[in-house]
Design goal:
Layout (H helix, E strand, L loop, with lengths): L6 H17 L2 E3 L2 E2 H7 L12 E6 L9 H10 L20 E7 L6 E7 L7 H5 L5 E3 L5 E3 L9 H5 L6 E2 L18 E2 L5 H4 L6 H5 L5 E5 L6 H9 L14 E4 L2
Parallel strand pairs: 3-11
Antiparallel strand pairs: 1-2, 3-10, 4-5, 6-7, 8-9
């Protein structure tokens, strides 16, 4: 029988056409691709001419201040006031950015600092992802593609900074700039939607002590590059050779 008239082949084509139509609409629970696409502003492609990063001066970071965390929560809708943060266990809480305390056991000196995805040049999360959902843009920003994340959490195990969290619960009233979905992994995006619009990340903008400098690490005349050249900066776990985009002073 001619393949063009084979009923089985015709049924198969109809089936895959229907699947493709559905896939173009729904990408994750509660996320409609067409709605997100229409709501987003046009974006320029990322370029490897930039390498975005943040320099954090821990000497200016006050122990009781969490303005950077609050700003991230407000920007992306994952904070304690969000209807999506009703978890059945404390360890299920989202943590795109968190304040951590470091204590020098020899001197007793205590300092606090914000910790988030370090946007590595050689990200372990990308290396272990079986679907390519964990990815690094040309400009160094590490992201998770929620369309193809299968929730295996290999990236969470690979991250030495514990910077990623898993969405356990159904989500509601999400923000257009931060589509999230149950069963997927999420982390700091360096406020990619702000960066693409020529703005600073929310945490940098909100810091009352101006302890955070955002900029292009490849531009020798950028504020972050000048500060690193003049006063230096360190990576957390530099021994891993990941070349992080987040640097710290005062460690």
């Amino acid at each position: 029988m001619d393949k063009k008239t084979n009923p089985t082949d015709q049924a198969r084509r109809r089936f895959f056409g229907q699947v493709a139509a559905v896939a173009s609409l729904t990408v994750a629970p509660g996320i409609i691709l067409q709605q997100v696409a229409h709501a987003r502003a046009p974006e320029l492609p990322a370029s490897d001419r930039q390498r975005w990063g943040i320099l954090i001066n821990t000497n200016k970071c006050a122990e009781g201040c969490d303005a950077c965390v609050t700003a991230c929560q407000d920007e992306f809708g994952w904070g304690p006031d969000s209807p999506n943060e009703k978890h059945s266990a404390p360890n299920q809480k989202a943590q795109w950015i968190r304040k951590v305390k470091l204590t020098d056991k020899q001197t007793g000196h205590v300092q606090t600092l914000p910790l988030m995805c370090q946007h590595c040049e050689h990200p372990p999360c990308v290396d272990v992802c079986p679907t390519g959902a964990s990815m690094k843009r040309a400009d160094g920003i590490v992201l998770v593609d929620k369309h193809i994340c299968i929730g295996c959490r290999y990236c969470m195990m690979a991250c030495p900074y514990k910077a990623r969290s898993f969405v356990h619960e159904e989500l509601h009233d999400q923000k257009v700039n931060a589509p999230r979905g149950k069963g997927t992994v999420e982390a700091c995006t360096l406020c990619v939607q702000r960066v693409d619009a020529g703005r600073q990340p929310a945490c940098v903008e909100a810091c009352p002590e101006q302890a955070m400098i955002f900029g292009d690490l490849k531009d020798p005349e950028s504020a972050i590059s000048r500060e690193l050249r003049e006063r230096g900066g360190e990576q957390i776990r530099a021994d891993l050779g990941l070349n992080t985009g987040i640097r710290y002073q005062g460690l």
